[in-house]
């Protein structure tokens, strides 16, 4: 779960990281009042769950409440990489001396937290990683041992820091690791982390991603989930434990397991078709979930045919078949549905389907044949 | 022979009295697996499907000689269940549970370094050696005994490909679903090395997907260390790019994690890379033909 | 550092362990008032840094403030295994249903914390360990991983506990491990841990020993150190970083390093002598420390001769020699002192001594010879 | 040959600019030890006694190829220093520091299980292979090169006994002070096994003391695994019983930790046990006479 800058900063402050004073505003008027309260130069920053807002014009530095109102008016409602800006963060200013990049993430290969630090902060860090990899210090943390003082020193010395800045950056890293661990984060990223001319070390931007699987023990973070920002269908899928993603073609895809679903997308593409969307019903899906999944997939107007590809492990063929029949009955769907059912209790599932086959349902033996048939039917126009 | 589980496997089921645990215990027994014990704290002394239930893994192991365990306990308790199995001396621990927090798993895999056990998963379908042992939620009917080792990050895609193999008359030595989570106990390389060491396995199938760089690392391993022919398939050529915040992820993986990049790395390492599941079976047949 | 029962309980309460209400009293009058405040049946418990107070009559259960005063009067001032009782703990009563033994200590061989639990609590647990070892459950904790929930269950199931008692004991163990770790304890022992008839789990006695080496990070515990209870000479030695122990013979022993000092005691015994005391000046002792050490050793009236056995590693022979001369000058000691000096800078040390040898100092080449000489001189009566 | 440190040792001194670190660096250099680097955070770039000083161990190791370290940093920072050396890949780490909290050391020794390094100490005099390398605070003048391996829990007692050996014309292969703290990196058994494997070591001397049961465990090891003759000495026959609160300690050690009990266990294992330091040298001479 991704957090907005202002939410991430709020959490990090609890761990002792220092930030500038700031206020969230949902309207230009609120932004003006925030700027009045903060006084002096302020930054108006678009709150979106994506990067690149700076380049997209989502950040403006202004020097009066009037300008703040005007800037907020321009930024609110903006579309940044498919995300609509619905809030801005109005933040006080600081005199920046140096800018760093600092993040902690999960390194899948090493199976450990990885700290990345660079003195080349505030810029496109991915470019730095490519063109000047030695400018990024990498340091793994043993998860059972935790971050050790010597590791903090390694970062600080590698950065060539001394005195107050060294102490401040060291302290920030120590606190950030605590936050990373306590919050079950999969990412905490500060870019830039700045040293001000008066020697303070400030978190100027914060990207925090919390592991979805851990949300059961972070109720207060789970509550931050921004329902409005999510796609309504994705949201509906999530609520019943399904994963739904919208694409641009005309074949709706339903399958179980990320791998099989991805493979189904590939096979549909190889058959000359284009997926309209897909819904992964995961392991152990029951009739109710299958029904909801079909409903979500077909609610997309572009869908002309549905490819239903299930290979049962935990998911049982009989439940899949019943779910499909229930969904068709409930929703009165008339779109062509190509079903391919295999694995656990598949035989019983196929029997159930055969006994009750609605007119718009066809079954195929293999995944390839099912994909070809679905593409064909979509081309003919199902609606 | 087979890897990880076979006729010597004495299986313990953690979470045996839960819905999934109960269902799959029955199925594993039906596959001829020697299920010797179950564990559900507080239900010790009961019996389930003829399997004695214990309160703790240690007790179960002491009384039944269990040497492998499969875990069906809910995510908040799953890491603890893995620790319990590791400490009880299991040689293979297979964690089916989906949704274990990543930080829990980092602690587990860190601890694993001082244990000689193999942890498969979590969020995986398990391990199945046809007609020897089924320590999995995989549908056993699609399997046939044979000489092809299968290792996969994806559950259902494994079934798909095993099915294709069996329908072509190609049996399997062992199929291992290593799981799709960010942090898993055992990677491709460790399983491939076991297949390489297994005299019965004449060809290995590796099934990957987008994300991470485990396939590229495995490709390098296959190139430099393996004699056994390897056939690979990567899913996700047309999948949309995953949305991740921040830049750290991209910097860490240090390269492309797309299906194209992976397939390219595989081919560069001399691995037969299929473009769809059916082609996998064809390429395996080809590889077996060459090697025999 | 050993803590008194009331201090240990105070600390453990912070970690969520439940105890009975209690008040510390230094006089019979205070004990009476405490009993009035607590009401009902109370226990008057001697506070001493040793075990076996029950057998020694250091615990009395009384049912009125008057009896409390009387019992406290008897217990205060009592000598229990060489410890004078200067305080009693007046503690409320409870209706006990079951008694357990629970402790966590450091297992040197395994290099891990070890939990010991027994349903045979409240009795002589060492006897249980010998006669009925299966009645004690042993469980190691990986210090980096910490105590795991399954381990708590193992203890609880092994004890045959169920329901509220199982939950209460489990919670107590979890909290006790936290305390053990946080407090840098080398021992936390609860004997008995009781389950009351109304299902509460109570810490009825508590022995807490905190690792001396960790006291720099536990100022609040270091402050609990009971100066009055310590031997004044031991206390003086500790304050300058020396270890002093009083024994019963007539040869005072000064050496560096626990091993060499122990060996010196053995050799003195083999030479037919009896050590009066010993002082370990440790590694890196300087002139000032040597001087204090000699002063402390000779302050014991039984000492008739001093054996000064130094083999320098970190300790340097020249400093030892200078310290010795300074001490003799300062204190005007006339007791015979047998010096044996070897190791780092020993030659220089011997030169310094040779140039300034006071009348009462003799040097010997070997440890055995030095021991024999010291025993001889002590027998002749040095004072 | 020798064990742990020899002519190949490239030594790094942690805490080189402190009082003890500085003093012993000079002495170790005088003994001919190849001291290649020092570390004191914040003093990187300086030189000390001709030894370059670095801010971190990693940096020092990268630039000088150090493969062993000796630690003189104060107790609150010593565990961190050990972790730093272990992570930098040192093969031998020798921690002289006295007074490290026991809980810190439990974390260190736990971590040590995944490392291939040998940690000697803490609270120990170090390791010295005469005329090869001196990674210790031991007075080198008392040593002579030879074939007797010495391992001891006590510092000064080691000097005493080495001195007696040398005076009798018996030289040493390596002397190891393993330290007297409750939790130490390396126990008697590990050092004895290294002596057993060292072709140069013809006799091993083990110096123990009261407390714990390390000597008994070592005796059992000597009995069942060693060919090399072992001479032992235990100090503390007349030492007063240590005062410990509670019963757990007595239950854990599971037996007597007195000098008598230890000597008895040694003799029962066929080990020559001396009753005073001088006798050690006699028994070693006897053992060497027999074995040659």
Describe the protein in words:
The complex is a heterotetramer, with two copies of chain A (383 residues) and two copies of chain B (292 residues). With 383 residues, chain A is α+β, with helices and mostly antiparallel strands. Chain A has three domains: 1-19 and 95-229, D-amino Acid Aminotransferase, Chain A, domain 1, CATH 3.30.470; 21-93, Dna Ligase, domain 1 (2-Layer Sandwich); 232-379, Succinyl-CoA synthetase domains (Rossmann fold, 3-Layer(aba) Sandwich), CATH 3.40.50.261. Chain A is built from 13 helices and 18 strands. Chain A has helices at 5-14, 28-38, 65-75, 125-131, 149-158, 163-182, 219-222, 232-239, 258-270, 287-298, 317-331, 346-356, 367-380, and strands at 22-25, 42-46, 59-62, 79-80, 83-84, 88-92, 96-107, 112-118, 136-140, 185-196, 201-203, 207-210, 243-246, 251-255, 275-280, 305-312, 337-343, 361-363. The mean pLDDT of chain A is 91. Chain B is of the alpha/beta class. Chain B has two domains: 11-120, 3-Layer(aba) Sandwich (Rossmann fold); 126-291, Succinyl-CoA synthetase domains (Rossmann fold, 3-Layer(aba) Sandwich). Chain B is 38% helix and 22% strand. In chain B, helix 6 (188-197) packs parallel to helix 7 and helix 7 (214-225) runs parallel beside helix 9 (259-268). The longest helix of chain B has 15 residues, at 277-291. The chains are: A alpha+beta (383), B alpha/beta (292). Chains A and B meet through strand 7, strand 8, helix 4, strand 10 and helix 9 of A and helix 4, helix 5 and helix 8 of B.
